[in-house]
Amino acid sequence: MKCPIDGEVLREVRRHKMDVDECPKCKGMWLTPLELDQLEDIKYDVDRFKGSLLVSSVETNLPCPVCQNHLYEFKYRLHQLRLDHCPKQHGFWLDYSEDQRVLEIMVKRKKDMDRTFGTESLWDKTLQYLRWSLFDKNPRSISNRKPSEPYYLPQHVEARPPATPYKPVKLPATCPQCGGPINSMTVIEDKSRRYTCGYCHSNIERL
Question: From the CB of residue 36, how many other CB atoms can be counted at a distance below 10 Å?
Answer without folding.
Answer: 20
